[in-house]
Amino acid sequence: MLNINFTKISQKQYDEFKCILQNDLQEKLFSSGEVKLMEDAISLAKHILREKLPLTLNDENNFIWQMILKDTGEQIGYIWITLTKFLSDEQYSARITYIYIHDTHREKEYAKQVMVDLEKIFKNKYKCNLLTLNVFRSNIHAHKMYLKLGFNEDKNKSTVSRCEMIKFLK
Question: 78 by DSSP, 3-state: which?
C-alpha cells in the first residue's frame, strides 16, 4: 500500500494550483470537443474557475490539499474536494472537484490509492455517505478506475463529453 499524506497548501501553492487547474481544464474542454476553439476553451475555463474556485484557502467547505508521499516527502499532486450538507446536519456528501497527479507520477496507481484514502477520510472524519465526481469521457483510464472503485454513472447528470459518477459509502 502506498502511503500518501494530504496537507494544506500555502498561498504560493494555491496560485500554482490555480494555474495547473486552468491549463488542464481548458485542454480537456478543447480535446473533448466541448468547445471548438482553444480561445473558447480558455474563456470557458476562466469563467468556470471564477464561479467555483474558493476565493481563499480558509473556506470551511472546500479542501485543497497537496498529496505528499510519506516515505520521500515528494509532492505528487493536488486535490480539491467540496463538502456539502446532505439530507440533514449529520450527513454530508463530498464532491471530488479536481484531482491532479503531476506527469512524473502518473501511471503508478497513486490516483487509485488517493481515492481509497479519501473515501476513508470523508466517511470517518466528515461523516459523508456519498462521493461524487465528474470525469471527461475522453479520460478513459480515470473513468475505468472509478468504475473499478465502485462508482456508478449518474446518467441523468452526464453529458456527451462528461460522465457524472456517484458512490454511496457504506
Answer: strand
150: which 3 cell numbers?
465502485
pLDDT in tens, 4-39: 999 999 999 999 999 999 999 999 999 999 999 999
Q: pLDDT tens, 66-125?
A: 999 999 999 999 999 998 876 666 778 899 999 999 999 988 889 899 999 999 999 998
Contacts of 150 (CB under 8 A, 6+ apart): 167
Choices 3.40.1550.10, 3.30.420.40, 3.90.1150.10, 3.40.630.30: CATH for 4-168: 3.40.630.30
Long-range contacts of 110-115 (CB under 8 A, 24+ apart): 110/2, 110/4, 110/67, 110/76, 110/77, 111/142, 111/145, 112/145, 112/149, 113/1, 113/2, 113/4, 114/4, 114/67, 114/79, 115/145, 115/146, 115/149
Q: How many CA atoms lie within 13 A of 129 on its CB side?
A: 8
The model carries a pTM of: 0.86
